[in-house]
Amino acid sequence: MQSLFKSGAILAAGLAAALFLNGCMTPRLKPAPSQAVLDARAARDAKAAACADITETPLIVATFGFQTAELSETAKLRLDEARHWLTCRTTMTARIEAIADRRGSEADQANLTRQRRSAISAYLVAGGVQPARIVEAEAAASAQPAASDVLVIRGEGQGW
User: Which residue range is the domain that position 144 belongs to?
Assistant: First the structure.
């Protein structure tokens, strides 16, 4: 009887150990991420996918009508492309240059150049680009090469 008691005790101890270890081995379920986490991941992944095709910095040319500083629809599309670049490259700045139409006095040309730079800058700021990331350069700066972290945006007339 004593050996039966010993066997029962060993069996009970073994069963208790098995139940204890089974509890440790039970896989734990991870809680589902919240909707905010899912949205943040989706936004991050969408931005990464949208920026994946960007390799080298282009020169963005926004064209204006003759003797005007009003942005054309084509110019707005090009500036939307610039805005996309600036969104993907958060350390990049935009250097805005403008060229007048070579008609009129020097003062008229300087005024038109200034108005075109301002129109480009205002469009980018209205689209969400921070003003601190925009530098309005004189037209003479166009001869200088741009650094790799500078997106050059040139406003010029159609040259009628």
Answer: 58-157
Residue 9 lies in a domain: no
Nearest 10 degrees: Cα torsion 101, 104, 105, 110? -30
To the nearest 10°, report the CA torsion of 31, 32, 34, 39.
Answer: 140
Q: What is the CATH number of the domain that holds 109?
A: 3.30.1330.60
Q: Which residues contact 83 (CB under 8 A, 6 or more apart)?
A: 124, 127, 128, 129
Domain count within the chain? 1
Task: Return the SS3 of 39.
Answer: helix
Q: What is the pLDDT of residues 63-110, one digit of tens each?
A: 888 888 888 888 899 999 888 888 888 888 888 888 877 777 888 888
Q: Say what the pTM is.
A: 0.63
Per-residue pLDDT of 113-126, as tens digits, reads 889 889 999 999 99
